[in-house]
Amino acid sequence: MYKNILIPVVLNRENDTPASFEAARQLADTDAVFTVLHVQEPIPAYVSAQIPSDVLANTRHDVLEGLQQCASELPEAKVQLISGHPGRAIVDFANENKVDCIVLASHKPGFEDFLLGSTANRVVHHAKCSVHVIR
C-alpha cells in the first residue's frame, strides 16, 4: 500500500511503539522504506549556554542509541534524530522526504490537549500524506 513510511516515536513507555511498528508493517508494500524518527526539542540558548558542550554531545549520543535500540524491533528501518517542535518537525520531515504515510502512537488526550493541541492532532491536521494514529 505505502512505499515510504514514517514512524515518529517518543523514547518512553507511554506510547505504543510496537503497535506502531506492526501497523506500519501491515500498511507497507513489499519494497517499502521505514524511517523511525525522534524529535528532540531544542534547549533554549540561555539554558544551553550553562551546559558543558560534552554533556550536550553525550546526551544526543544517548538519545540516538535509545532510538536505534527502539528501531531494532523493525530491523529494516532507518533512524533519524532531528530537533524542533515535534508536531511541526514531523510534518516538515514528511514533506521534505516524500513520505506517503505517517504511523504514530497517541496518548489519551487530557484537558490540556484541548487548549494546547497534541502532536498527533497537529500531524493529522497538517500532513499532506496519510496519517494512521495508533491508540
UniProtKB/TrEMBL annotation:
Pfam family, one: Usp
UniProt domain UspA: residue ranges: 1-135
SUPFAM superfamilies given in the database record: Adenine nucleotide alpha hydrolases-like
InterPro entries (alphabetical): Rossmann-like_a/b/a_fold, Universal_stress_UspA, UspA
Family statement: Belongs to the universal stress protein A family.
Entry-linked PANTHER family: STRESS RESPONSE PROTEIN NHAX, UNIVERSAL STRESS PROTEIN UP12
Name of the molecule in the record: Universal stress protein
Organism annotation: Tritonibacter litoralis
Upper lineage: Bacteria, Pseudomonadati, Pseudomonadota, Alphaproteobacteria, Rhodobacterales
